[in-house]
Design a protein that fits this description.
single chain; mainly beta; twelve-stranded antiparallel β-barrel; 40% strand
Length: 175
């Protein structure tokens, strides 16, 4: 398992393709992670970071859940249930039973933080999109939850922040 301390303290996702969206994770001049939507409808995406590969797939009708599957692992993966405006935070359940909440500390689109079982905070995601580009920054606090699955939380949080930003972003009208 990768420790939070092995990750750079500040990273950002830069868009490399528009349809379907594709992003690369950067820290300084180094690009070391990827996130790509697998279909135009946005129902699945694939992400890679530090040799770990995850697939995100939406399931269900009215009570949708996001399945998070690790490549090559036939066992049950993590499950994320969004809040859908219910006033509650989104909930992530890891296969070992550990729960995390996806909390939006501000009304800013595409921002959020994972809050662990002991109220420990994991990476902070912030949308710095402008009219022309959707971009999300990731900051790993020095006191990040050390018991967490860093790659899963970083990639899933990035997927949720970018999905939120993409759903609210209106492309500029040229002409």
């Amino acid at each position: 398992m990768v420790a939070w301390s092995a990750l750079p303290p500040r990273m950002w996702w830069c868009q490399t393709a528009v349809a379907p969206p594709r992003y690369r994770l950067h820290a300084g001049p180094l690009a070391f992670g990827s996130l790509a939507w697998a279909d135009p409808a946005g129902t699945s995406a694939e992400a890679t970071l530090l040799g770990q590969h995850l697939r995100f797939t939406w399931h269900g009708g009215w009570s949708r859940q996001l399945a998070v599957q690790t490549a090559g692992d036939p066992g049950p993966g993590a499950r994320y249930r969004p809040s859908w405006g219910s006033g509650e935070d989104g909930a992530l359940l890891l296969p070992d039973g550990t729960r995390y909440r996806w909390y939006a500390p501000s009304a800013r689109v595409g921002s959020g933080v994972w809050v662990g079982p002991d109220a420990a905070v994991s990476p902070v995601f912030g949308n710095v999109s402008d009219r022309w580009e959707i971009r999300v920054e990731v900051a790993c606090p020095a006191d990040a939850d050390t018991a967490a699955a860093p790659v899963l939380l970083l990639l899933l949080g990035s997927y949720l922040a970018l999905t939120d930003a993409l759903s609210r972003h209106s492309p500029p009208v040229l002409g």
